[in-house]
Amino acid sequence: MTKRNAPLYLVDGSIKIYAPTAISGKGSYFRIVYPTPYGSKDTTAKSEQSAKVLAGQIARRLKREGGDRFQLSGNEFIDAYLNPITREVSGRSWGLKHAYAQKSLLNLYVRPVIGELNCSEINNAVIKKIIKSAKTVSIGEHLSSSLHGLINWGHLENWTPERPEELLKGLTNTVNQIKGLKKSVESGENHLFINSNEIPSHSDVDKLAKAAAEVSGIWWYELLFNLAAYSGMRLGEIIDLDITQINSESKTIRIENQCLEVSGKKSRTTPKLNKARTTVYPTKTPEGYPLATQVKRRITELNKLAVSPILLDGTSRRLMFHDRKGSWISQSSFATRIRRPAQVIAGWPIDNGKFQWTFHSLRHVFCSYYLGDLNQSAKNVAIAAGHSDVFTTLSMYVGASRDAIEQLSAAN
């Protein structure tokens, strides 16, 4: 056996592999010596090949732990971002639904493009190539948002040496080029602003609600759509709504949980942004639907049940809107069997084969109704809607352009 004088191999300039010095015993192993902030450490391997593999793994770990992560692969970058333990060091925690969406987007669109690249090779052209691989504008927009999160986090954690603003430059135009059309934005507004043509009218809501009852043959589907539109509840929240959350005298609803559905699996979680809140609903909708009366009618029906149904999470509750077993409605089944057929009957607009308005559009109805029709304060609407802050509400529904034009007009 050779004496352990010089390393047999040098990996990454600092990790040394020494040959065995004996036929048996401790000296019969290959020895790997590597640096740490607290001095050198060593480990062993039985064969030359396993020593090389182990040295490579140590090299990558040292880079991940140090400031040289940009020398690692895009696959390792994505893996670190999707791992909540490493991501939450300088990033935020994700809900189950958001985590599933990010994993799907990154694995389907991002990994094939940057996975085999060295992170230092990721540039603006590569990022735009990812966006261009999207099949629809909607996917492109979601990819753009996902890439903003990935690149900004990656820069903080030394995965990408180039500044995020350089890497992400021009992504909006790239998204618009997917269909060859540029989407106009209102002058003076930020990206959150919702144009009035993006919000269903009260008549549109009324038609949809009636069509839902017609399609399903169940009267309370009309109630479901009207309650969603004029209480601002999200789909997951209204699916989890039970009679104990409703005060029919004050016409208020307490929201502390939602039904989250990811890949067909349902669970009960906190609402979006982890914000519990109380919202309201009117006595009648603008189209005259007796909302308060119908809420009481539904509560009376449920109070007549001999026992409360057992839900998938083991809780015993009386849901306002439930499946045949009294448990949570399936969101995918609801969309296929009820919402989309009702939208067709109600004549909701379609563009490029997709409905321009979705169930989430009913939240826009709630906010615009209380802000515009009833002249309520943005602060109060933000609280009832569960927005992150009042700025979000103002940016989405009030905007700056209308006031600007009114002031210019008054000056003439």
Summary keywords:
412 residues; alpha+beta; DNA polymerase, domain 1; hpI Integrase, Chain A; three-stranded antiparallel sheet
Question: Would you mind describing this structure in some detail?
Answer:
By secondary structure, the chain is of the alpha+beta class. It folds into three domains: 9-66, no CATH class; 74-176, Tyrosine recombinase, N-terminal domain (DNA polymerase, domain 1, Orthogonal Bundle), CATH 1.10.150.130; 196-403, hpI Integrase, Chain A (Orthogonal Bundle). Helices cover 46% and strands 11% of the residues. It is built from 17 helices and eleven strands. The protein has helices at residues 48-65, 74-82, 84-87, 96-114, 124-132, 137-156, 164-167, 171-176, 202-216, 220-231, 235-239, 291-303, 331-346, 361-373, 378-385, 390-398, 401-410, and strands spanning 9-11, 15-18, 30-36, 39-45, 246-247, 252-255, 258-262, 265-269, 277-280, 350-351, 354-355. Strands 1-2-3-4 form a four-stranded antiparallel beta sheet, covered by helices on one side. Strand 1 (9-11) and strand 2 form a beta hairpin. Helix 5 runs antiparallel to helix 6, helix 9 (202-216) packs antiparallel against helix 10 (220-231) and helix 14 packs antiparallel against helix 15 (378-385). The mean pLDDT is 88.
Q: Mind sketching the topology for me?
A:
Elements: E1 9-11, E2 15-18, E3 30-36, E4 39-45, H1 48-65, H2 74-82, H3 84-87, H4 96-114, H5 124-132, H6 137-156, H7 164-167, H8 171-176, H9 202-216, H10 220-231, H11 235-239, E5 246-247, E6 252-255, E7 258-262, E8 265-269, E9 277-280, H12 291-303, H13 331-346, E10 350-351, E11 354-355, H14 361-373, H15 378-385, H16 390-398, H17 401-410
